[in-house]
Amino acid sequence: MTSSCCGPAVTPEPRPDIDVDDLAALCKAIGHPARLQLLRHLIKHGECYFGSLADVLPLAASTISKHVSILKEAGLIEGSSDLQRVCYCVRPDRLVQLKAMIGAL
Fold first, then answer.
1. CA separation (Å) from 27 to 1, 4, 23?
2. Cα separation of 57 and 6, whole Å?
3. Fewer CB within 10 Å, N side or C side of the chain?
4. pTM value?
């Protein structure tokens, strides 16, 4: 008698196609606790100047800047210049895409 640790095979429902490269890039972008904290802070507060973001985590400003750049490259956040400061905010459309792709796995 053989036993299976996974139980009987179930045929999954068809899922919509997803861009696996895009999903991987998004997962990589949120794959660091500091970036998740920065993203959550922006979701909660709507928008934030870089100086305020630097206060979110006990990291050097240069490290936070690198994390912000990775989130921007993934399209999860965007920044706009206001005189000599940059204001960052979340791109809600991109969060919706991320949630949809994860839901389609």
1. 41, 31, 6
2. 41
3. N
4. 0.80
Please write the tens of the pLDDT for every residue from 48-92. 888 888 888 999 989 999 999 999 999 999 988 877 788 899 999
Helix intervals (H) in the chain: 20-29, 33-45, 50-53, 61-73, 92-103
Which residues, at least 6 apart from 74, have a Cβ–Cβ distance to it below 8 Å? 25, 26, 28, 29, 30, 94
Which amino acid is residue 56, in one-letter code? V
Q: Which two tokens stand for residue 69?
A: 């750049």
d(CA 12, CA 21): 22
